[in-house]
Amino acid sequence: MGKVKFFIIPALLFVLTGCSKTASNTNSSLANDITGTVDAATGIGAIKIKEKTDRDLAIAQAKELWRARFLSGTDLSNGPCLSNEAIPGWVADIAHNPRTAVDDDPSNQCSVYRGGTAKHFVELDPSGNLIRAE
Fold first, then answer.
1. Within this chain, do residues 53 and 77 fall inside the same structural domain, yes or no?
2. Where are the alpha helices (DSSP H) in 43-84?
């Protein structure tokens, strides 16, 4: 039975990696090929792409919200919440970099993030520059 495993496992790896790899491939190359195959089969790669797309969209929406408030003359120096739903699951907030006491005042923070309903946030400084998005 041990001899059967010895032949089946390399054959299975050969099939999973596309049957076209040469003997000169390194172990890390083989590991990357297998990881890519698993990501494609399970959809893990698509989840990572969606997370990045959501982040990028939330940043763009936060900047647009900042722009609208700025053009309307709203005072952003106190670090107000721009939106409790920039996109679903994401809030947009104004903060200072480095943070100041006003940023830690709950009345200036997005309530759905504080309450745990939203899991992600975009922080822009009062000039509309990205501080962070998580």
1. yes
2. 44-71
- What are the per-10-residue average pLDDT scores of the chain (134 residues)? 53 51 56 68 80 96 98 94 97 96 92 95 97 97
Give the list of residues 6+ apart from residue 58 with CB closer than 8 angstroms, or none: 86, 87, 90, 92, 120, 122, 133
Do 127 and 69 share a structural domain?
Answer: yes
pLDDT reported for residue 29: 72
Task: Report how far residue 48's alpha carbon sits from residue 54's, in angstroms, rounded to the nearest whole number.
Answer: 10
Residues 50 and 30 sit within 8 Å (Cβ to Cβ): no
Q: Which of 68, 72, 73, 62 is nearest to 124 (CA)?
A: 62
The verdict on 88 and 129 lying in the same domain is yes
In single-letter form, the type of residue at position 30 comes to: L
120-124 and 90-94: which strand pairing? parallel
Structural domain range at position 69? 46-133
